[in-house]
Amino acid sequence: MAVLTYGYIRVSTKEQNEDRQQIALELQGVDRIFMDKQSGKDFNRPEYKKMVRKLHAGDVLYVLSIDRLGRNYEEIQDQWRYLTKEKRVDIVVLDMPLLDTRQGKDLMGTFIADLVLQILSFVAHSERENIKKRQAEGIAAAKMRGVRFGRPPRPLPENFQQEFLRWKNGEITGTEAAGTCNMPLSTFRYRAAAFRPGDGAG
What we know:
Blueprint: E1 5-11, H1 19-26, E2 32-37, H2 46-54, E3 60-63, H3 73-86, E4 90-93, H4 107-144, H5 160-168, H6 174-180, H7 185-194
Parallel strand pairs: 1-2, 1-3, 3-4
Helix pairs in contact: 3-4, 5-6, 6-7
């Protein structure tokens, strides 16, 4: 069976486009490129799984960076071992020439590659954790400054203040006020809780 070369691209739905990875892999002249676009939340990778089923011993898999193989330290290690030991595929990490299993297949070469892999996958995992931590700290700090996240609330209907006051004074029920304002009762109550007469109706 002929040896084939594959390229794998992974980008999250919020990440920059895949051009950088695509160009790098095309320059290697790979036979076929597989690509997954998914959120980092579920890490569902149908194209990766399809590619792995096609890989045979001796085939070569190219990725631009080590973190394309997994979302954390353990997963990167597991995928590396599975591909190189069980599938007996060679892996080439383009941005780290030391991670090229076609080179140095003797004991020392294997030891160096494994050591570099462990260090890099740990660094990649740590960097993602640090990014998450900085994002969480940034959001918390912004909330303390009064910054609001999410969609801005819809403008209140023009008659909201009038119906709010009628409801507040017991002239009508909340259901009646909500109906007159053309909004669900739960929405009326939510907006009424934060409403101050004189704020206007949007």
